[in-house]
Batch of 2 targets.
Target 1
Amino acid sequence: APAAPVVTLLDPINNTNKTATTITGTGEANASLTYVIDDADATTSPVTGVGTVDGSGNISITSIDVSTLKDGILSAAVTLTDATGNIGLPGLSTATKNTVAPGDVTDLTATVGTNKITLDWTKPGDADFAGVNVYRDGTKLNTILVADPTNTYEDGTAVVGMTYTYTVKAVDTAGNESTGINVSATMTSPIVDTPVVIGPPA
C-alpha cells in the first residue's frame, strides 16, 4: 500500500481564500487520492474530493471551497490508492479558519506636512488585530502590512494641488480586512523661506 502522503492544508483560511483553499504535498507518484476536510461541528457536512499525485510525486489540489465549514480548526485527511487498488494510511493536516473581519480603526486623521500627508489612527480592540492596509483613491499604498503597534503612515508621494481620499482597513492575523474608514486631504505647497539679500552699504 502507498505510504501516507505528507500534506499541508492552506493556513490560515480567511474570507478571501475560503473558496480557493489548497492542499499541497508529496506522495506516491501517479497514485489516485481522495481528501476529506472537516470542522469540529458534527452537524456540518465535510468537504470531499478526488485527485491524482503527479508523476514526480507532487500533490497540488486547488480551488477547494470550504465556505460551508464553520470557523475554527479544520482537519484535512488525504488518502492514496495505488494502481493495484491498495489503500494507504491518510496524511493529515490542520488549519485555522477565521472569516470574521476585525473592527475598523477609529480617530482617523490626515495631517498635511512638508512634502507628505501623515495619517494617524487608533487601533480596534480585536484580540487578533495585526495591523492596517492603507489605500489612496482605492490603490493600496503599503507593500507590507503596517503592523501593530504602528499607528501612523506617511504618504510621501502626494502631489501638490491634489485632493486624495485615504481608506484605512484593519487586518487580523488571518488576513481578513475590515470595511475601512475614509479621510480626505489636499496636498498644499510647502512653505519656502524667502532669502534676504544683504547688499553693500548705500
Target 2
Amino acid sequence: LASASPQRRTILKRLRVPFRVIPSRASARSTLRDPRRLVVALALRKASQVAREHPQAAVLGADTIVFCRGRIIVKPRSRAEAERILRLLNNSWHRVYTGVALVLEGGGLAFSECAVSRVRARKMSEVKLMSLAGRHLDKAGGYAVQDRRDPFIKRVSGDHDNVVGLPMRSVRRLWKRALKSRKKPVPRKRADHASRPRKPTEG
C-alpha cells in the first residue's frame, strides 16, 4: 500500500491479503483540473513510484479529492483554510472522487479506475463550523465521515468507503483484472515455413 493513511490501511485489511505499507514520495502537484483524470493520474504516480523500487510487489495507490461548485478541494493546510472549506461545503451536495491504481512488475503492468460518491453536508452555524475546523487537517475536505464525533455529513450516496479514502469495490475489480491478465497464456510463435530447410530432392 503506497499510502500512510491509517483509514486506507484499515479498509484494505478487509481483503484479508497480507500487505506492507510503503508511503509514496511522489509529488501530488498537477495541472489537471478534471477531477476524474486528476485522482487517477495521482494514484498511478504514487503506486508507480513505489513499484519501481519494489518491482516484485503488487503496489496499490490511491488519491482522494472533494469537488464542490467547480472547485477541487484537497487537504486543508491550516485551520483558517479548513474554515473556508467547511463554509463552502456547508448545507450543500458535493462529490468525492477517489482514484485507485494497482501497479505490478515495476510499472510494466498497471490498472486504474475512479470511484465517485455524492455527499450532503448538514447546515451548521458559524460557531459550529469554527469548532469543527482543524479537527481533520489530514482529510480532503477537512472532515471525516468515519468519525462519529464529526456531525458535518448528513448523507452519502454511493460507496461510503470511497468517502473515507479507499473504495473496496474498485480495489477488488483491479485485483481481479490483474490476476486475470497474469493467467493469460503466452501465445506461441508460429514457425516460419519459409525459413525451414527443405528436403533434398532425389535425382
